[in-house]
User: Fold these one by one.
Assistant:
Number 1:
Amino acid sequence: IEGNSIGTNAAETTAIAGDTGITIDGGATGNTIGGTDGAAANVIAGNSGDTGMQVSEGGNTIEGNFVGTNRSRVPYPTHNATGIRQNNDASSTPNAYVGNTIASSSGPDLADGNGIEIDDGAATITGNTIEGNAAAGVDIMASGDGYKISKNSITGNASGIALGSSANTDTKPPSFDSATISGGTVGGQFH
């Protein structure tokens, strides 16, 4: 699925209210949503329901899309769902979330609003820009491990990366006590 304007007018200037933008379900694996070419990117917005994209199977690649924002990274004011949610029957074969821009919860109903939420299955989350969400940039609610979160820009969210009570085999993320910048090097104390 590539080059679509989902939940917007054809010019992508206005979001049109809808429910879920894209759903991967029913045994669908090996799919690519978006791609490495800029023309392959999908714009997924205007989702006032549960989520911009629902992924319920493993082994898919979601790459280079704009979720809740236009191609210039300006959020649509009516998009207020979680950007991408992986849940239900997602298998142990990881889905890859690569190079997407997600600003998912800029609308008036900010009850949910994670950038990427993983409720089940394995996932690799790499090189995404996740900003301005009312909840976490990335929220791992699933138990166990098998999640790689690397080289993302996660800014301006209510929290950066949130781990549920059994996520990451109950290993909590590091917490910084202090940080310093000296000669172009960032250092500090964390536990």
Number 2:
Amino acid sequence: FIVNSAGLIYQDVGIKWQQLPGSDARSISSNANKTCMVNSAGKIYEFQNKAWLQMPGSDGRDIAINSDGSIWMVNTVGKIYKYNGSSWTQMSGSAGKRIAAGGGQVWLINTQGEIYKFNGNTWDRIPGSDGRDITVSNDGKIWLTNTAGKIYEWNGQSWQQLDGSDGNTLSANTHKLYFVITAGRIYYRTY
């Protein structure tokens, strides 16, 4: 799934991108047979039976779904939440900007571009800075773009720069890393 700069929502159906109903999207995440979206007004939705159903809460900025189906959200003031099935539970940490989940891991970029990984209770600071977007695949691989558009992969100790530049947003799963450049073009590479 991807959201374009006009807020339109698309799904990769193998040979093309198919537009889904809805518009005004800001962030989208899909994993564990769930798809959730935050719109530009901060309202949170889950895609069920070909329609967007509003979830509790508002003021969302970014959303992520882990491989176990748990839904994580960062709001516009940087607070971090996890959905408990009926409402949002505030988690430790603050100043969140981008959140990513997959393979049982949750990663975060804060408003200063610093990178964190959730350890089950709190957030551990990870080397590196100047993060713009982050993604985690279900097989545990992590990628990052920085504010200069460079693309990196985490090797467990440090960030290794990949080829390509001008990366704006990232998404990974099913052995593909997708990235959108600032001009809006979509690229992918297999891993």
Number 3:
Amino acid sequence: SDLSWPSPWGRGRPGWHIECSAMAQKYLGSAFDIHGGGVDLRFPHHENEQAQSRAAGHPFASYWLHNAWITTAGEKMSKSLGNSLLIPSVLERVRGIELRYYMVAAHYRSHVEFSFEALDEAAVGFRRIEGFLERLDSGTAEIREAEPGIWLVRTTSGAEVIVHYAPPVVILRVAVMPLPSEIGRQAKLCR
């Protein structure tokens, strides 16, 4: 049902916007960098939080990130629909870093269609990246820097890989392809 009442300014609603502003003020301060939430909260909730906080003289959030939903079987995953998962139960299946890798693989404004099969595939992919980094760290791979942000790597097995990086994130994307032998100069592994 619609929780509202008539008022001189239009339909009145409960004060959940002010509650969130109060919590942000208490735990984050009057000004903080990033406020996030689902795209469905942009209006009216986030706009109201921002308006009332600024009207009270608080700068509130500098940046807003509105993420798309996690869906399962084509429906938004939520407590109210009864199709949500608890993180501790998911972490019985994969490590936390593997779950994070799965969740951030898609653009933050893109829907993620959750399935355990896709999660398992992402975990395997992350373990491959971990193994690759371990081989790099152990010195068993030849690393050449083709240009800033791109490493050319040849492993002891002869596999040739292009690695895109942007410190402090070491690997953003890995693509296997032939390397021209004349490319590059020796590079050091970024820590």
